[in-house]
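Repro case for the chain-ordering regression, as requested:
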Amino acid sequence: MSIKYKILKGIDLAGLNFLRPVILLCYREEPEEQVRQIALHILVPILAFTLFLFLWSILAPLHKTRSGEVPTPAVVWDSAKQVWQFHTRQSEQLEAYEATGAQREQMLQQARERLAEIQPLEAEARRQLKQADATMAEYLETEVQPLQAEYESLRYQFRDQQNARKAELEKLAATLTPEDRSARDTFLKQYHAHELQIESEKETLRALKSKQDAVRAKVFPERIEALRAQSAIAEEKQFLLKLVDTLENNKAQKLAEEQAQYETQLEAFYTADGEKLPQLAKSLLFTEARIQNTATSSYAKPMTLPDQVLRSIACVFAGFVIASVIAIPIGIVCGLSRVVMSALTPFIALFKPVSPIVWLPILFIIVGGFIPDPDQHWLISALAKAPLIGWMKINPAFIASALTVAMCSLWPTLVNTAFGVASIDRDHLNVARVLRLGFWSRLFKIVIPSALPLTFAGLRISLGVGWMVLIAAELLSSSEGVGKFVWDMFNNGSSQTFAQMFVVVFVVGIIGFMLDRIMIIFQRLVSFDENAPSL
Amino acid sequence: MLLCALLLPNAVFATLLDVEKNELKLGFIKLTDCAPLVIAKEKGFFSDEGLQVEVVAQPNWKTLLDNVISGNLDGAHMLSGQPIAATIGFGTKAHIITAFTLDLNGNAITVSNSIWEQMQENDFDLDTDTPPHPITADALKPVVDEKLARGEKLQMAVVFPVSTHNYELRYWLAAAGIHPGMYTRSDISGRTHAEVELSVTPPPMMPATLEAGNIQGYCVGEPWNQQAVAKGIGVPVTTNYDIWKNNPEKVLGVSKRWADQHPNTHIAMIKALMRACKWLDETDADGQLVNREQAARILSRPDYVGADYDVIKNSMTGYFFFQKSDKRHMPDFNVFFKYHCTYPWYSDGVWFLTQMRRWGQITEPKSAEWYDQTVRDIYRPDIYLAAAKLLLEEGHIDVDDVPWDSDGYKEPTTDFIDGLRYDGRDPIGYLNSHTLGNKDL
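-- result from build under test --
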């Protein structure tokens, strides 16, 4: 029974109360009621989401843009898998660079075996694409060529006719005398007819061109599929070739070669004639430096989406902490003193609505002023060496992004904290007065505990705002993170771009949900209100 | 160094350079002419020099430049005009140098379908699936005049105020008598007297903005012109190769401070990039580019250019699609190594300075001596030659690959769409030969 209550308590804290009937059903309490609750809070949302996916699948292909069809859930899922595949491939390259001994041999063998496997697949893909291209070429030959020829023929015919009519009109114009007004009226009508004829002929040509364009715009699904298949195989081959190259020239191999070279040079140094010593000494020292360089080198792996997600989460928390450290004390002071509240109101009113797109450039410049030379700055170096976060390569762009998050997210916390403090029950304050509590005791025993529920409500809003703000900040600063992934994929302009944007929708949404759950847990832990909202 | 080779007679290895820094970050914009940086990494040329290089996409040209200035990036793929503008103080001011040109050509001017139709109506020869090239802006001028008569202006976009694209679009328009507008001390958008208004738009936004009708044309690098063709949004009417044959497009930009602090690293970087450029331009006995398809495949990776392979391939493998029906053989659309293109020519830098003056980005007249001195502060052939010398010793390049004895100025050329003669030693004369724009008589 104690396990059951612990589970229920945890669920309650996390704001996941829709799981409660599942637990109770496992303990066979009121089974009919629990089934009803499960149907209402679990099955209905699942059905709704399923219906959403179904409608999305049906409606997406109906809307066509020049950038391609709106991707269906299946296409988005496939795109997500490709993003993950890219991540695993880059991770494997990193591993290959560091691999030694038997592991290196094994990786090398596996890569070579796979290369041999895909060779016939590549040939088949090329054959299919060639066949699809031939089909398309034949179609263009039989369907487009005649329309094209007709267009050309008509174009020249119309031009010749226009020139002929124009010559006739010019010839006629030369014969008209000022006295003959009716003849000139007739000429005007004839010229107008000529203009109308030209316009009509242009319209005919346009219609023919539209028809030609429509025919030319025919989509060949077999060719698209053949291209896709060829690309998938070619990309795998490219990856494997690079992997083999990395394994054959990785850190261990380079060190071995350089060490052997060093031994050779050392032997030469000890046995050579005196006049050769300066040059040999120089070579020896260079090789020694080279070995040191190689030993400390690391593979320059690009940031992939999982890395960017982690870095973004770190950045949003950094900004969130900075915001909280600023907002909570100020909020408390505002709540305690109406004078301070009044003094700060203009700042809150002015700065609260400011967009991160405005803050980021300002903070980027300011941070740049404090850190003029990132390579040699003590803070950047210290952060690069710190365990757990060193791999994130924190730089001025990260700091500027975190500060942008702070500037945009501190306001809800500040306002809620101030309101919480100002709303403290008068009875509590009277008790403090009766007990003659000092300022600090009153602050930490009465004021802060009383304000915590509203403060945490503010913190929850702040974290949500921060997460939204961060995506925009990273996009602008090119700080590695989800925002940069969005901008880079958009800039690719590939046929996958649209689908990749949807991948990010779900990634950002899921992470936002998780961050919110974390805040719910903290809020429930500090709150005395059993009815605190969980949505 | 020769002694090392003697000790290991069968080894071909990079000459030892004691690099000051072995982990580097280089920035780039997602355009196919970032290829040298990507290939140097993916083919292991950086690694051969003892460098572990992260090649990181940047959101726009200004952020890229700011990151180089601030030290967040060690160097970057830059517009040729960026080191020049930064050093002379147009826009963000900083001393940026370049010792390496990444590539030639590679841009095109694309107009919307409706503008193209109007151009076709103005010029009978254009109204065909395979119109004759190069196409001048002569057929565009009546369109511009008609819009002006209605109180409107044609809107076109370039990627950055000091981009090759801006100068080339202006050059193309001006050659047909269309005024692209002047920059002045108070007008930093360059629209004074403009008959066509040019705005700045990031490359990836170009096709979407064109489709939305906010602009009616743009000048940009690849794959954004081929994208317009593939998606049926617009028509590339001309490439910058037609405007100025073999014009310098991108450079490797680093801050002078960084270069002074990391001289050996800089040389090692250039060695790797030179090998990458040579690999990219390698041809077989038939003159076919043998490595471009592999390059296109690598560039299609999502963390590099990321566009579809077949879109990237269209302009990188010696062809260019002006329309789906108009595929042209253009082996020099992207040049990475031929014609000594990686050498940081003073005459290339001076050309950009003349265009900055022509359109008013440089607000005051300057002497020929000023042009020469300024370009020497920015373009560093001495660093390039130090790297080339090492590569020659290692056997990675041939003696003919580098213009060892050049004084930095190319021979005068008339390879412009308007036929004017450009001599880098006579910038004032060239400036005065233009019909539109500033003259310094």
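Ordering looks correct now. The first strand of chain A starts at residue 64 and ends at 65.
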